[in-house]
């Protein structure tokens, strides 16, 4: 079974920086080479899923939420690794039934996220999974959506944290597991 260090090394080695994308001044972290490498992808999913287990390896969450869009790619296999369900948090207007919605600021704009009102049962413990923790806005908004459903956000697990943006100053007391801090 791959360990956290293997995942961190793969992430460092395979992530490609793309300057000025999606807009000038933003450096995009392209993880597609990580996803294309079976061993790297497997190690990363195992490492991300560890945040949903206790010290004895027991699963301590009921659902995994993935944030659009790259969070979907990571959260779905994390949910499978934990043997629990996956819930997508989508951009405004993408879900077909009744939703809860939260608007928030991004590092380069604004967005609105939504979740189906019945996606999370009251009292369910939820692990959030995403690719990059930047300003913390997506995590805060997703936590609000989980709580609007009656669920409990127990933590987040992310590939990379952009420490220079100080995202933890807005995420509060939420436990966040990060594989790589930049």
From TrEMBL:
Major localization class: cytoplasm
Transmembrane segment boundaries: 71-89
Enzyme class of the recorded protein, top EC level: transferase
Compartmental location: Cytoplasm
GO biological process: adenine salvage; AMP salvage; purine ribonucleoside salvage
Domain Phosphoribosyltransferase: 35-160
Pathway involvement of the protein, from the record: Purine metabolism; AMP biosynthesis via salvage pathway; AMP from adenine: step 1/1
Enzyme Commission number: 2.4.2.7
One Gene Ontology term, aspect cellular component: cytoplasm
InterPro entries named among the record's database cross-references: Ade_phspho_trans, PRTase-like, PRTase_dom, UPRTase/APRTase
Keyword line: Cytoplasm, Glycosyltransferase, Membrane, Purine salvage, Transferase, Transmembrane, Transmembrane helix
One GO MF term attached to the UniProt entry: adenine phosphoribosyltransferase activity
Catalysed reaction, written as an equation: AMP + diphosphate = 5-phospho-alpha-D-ribose 1-diphosphate + adenine
Record family assignment: Belongs to the purine/pyrimidine phosphoribosyltransferase family.
Functional note: Catalyzes a salvage reaction resulting in the formation of AMP, that is energically less costly than de novo synthesis.
SUBUNIT field: Homodimer.
Protein name (database record): Adenine phosphoribosyltransferase
